[in-house]
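Review form for a predicted model. The reviewer records the input and the model, then writes brief findings.
Reviewer: anonymous (R2)
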Amino acid sequence: MKLLSILIFSLFTVHFSLAAPSRRPAQPSLDAAPLLSDEPARLTATLSTNTIRIGDPIDLTLTALHRPGTTIDFPLAGLAHGKDVIVRDTAAPETHPADGGLERTVRHCTLTSLVVSNHVIAENAPVLIHLPDGTTATQSMPFAAFEVVSSLEEGETELRPMDMTPAHWPAPPSHWLLILLGVLAVLLLAAAALWYFARRVTVVLAKPTPPPPPHATALAAIAAMRAEDWTGGDRQDPFFVRLSAIVRTYVEARFSIRAPERTTEEFIRDALKSPDLTPAHRRRLADFLETSDLVKFACHRPGTPELLTALDSAETFVRETIPAPSAPTPSRAAPDTAPSPSEKGGIP
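Model under review:
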């Protein structure tokens, strides 16, 4: 009986030993074993995934365990291979201390592919290992491969068309709020600009300056003639032509006598008949006209005293015919505010 129990226990032990799943030993890490004396570096390549779709990124990590003073030159140029393997980004290598007095150099890369297939990364590409003694050793790129699968679903033969439906309008409420705020901001800026420029631009409407009175214009022209030198040469004709024009212009403006079709001499003769002129004024005009006629038609050549006399005669005529200033309009008399007899305490 005891022998039977031992036999049954042995059978159960063997059964459970056979049924238990076998465990694979853990993969040794890069630092598990020290470098051999003739081993310049130990290289590994690790991918973030082994399967991607067309255009998806995949991260490649290249690691080298080496002795201090050694530099690793990974063949980054050999990683790219047309559309099969495309290098999208690379990072600078980083070196950190490792166990056993060694160092670890790590470099990260981002790859992608546009070809559906299995791709080996930089197969047999040389990795340059620059040793501290100045020599350079070479090792092959560690094996790394990934698979690119199609973006099509199972059974599809063509890419699905893009959704070209236009955006819906009106916009969602949140967008309406942003649009309203933007419109208000533009209106505020426009109002501020108008207010700013309205303050800077000031329109001043100047009152029109009234023209000078006729006598002021005539006296200024006569004074200008006095300032000129009329002596010497045969200048009598231009002297009387100019002085006659001054007198005619004054008479036209002062007495409102218009005769555009008349000559100056004819005009002055007509002015002598005007009832607005006093006998003394007519006599001065007649003397002036007679002297002008002698110069123009009788070849009379007066001297400087006669020219000055003509200027004096014209100036005197203008000054004597200056209109008198208009009398100011009398203001209304102020009411009598004197106190009445009753207010003074007198008898009404």
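Findings: Confidence is low (pLDDT under 50) at residues 11-28, 340-348.
Further findings: The CA atoms of residues 272 and 285 lie 7 Å apart.
Recommendation: see findings above.
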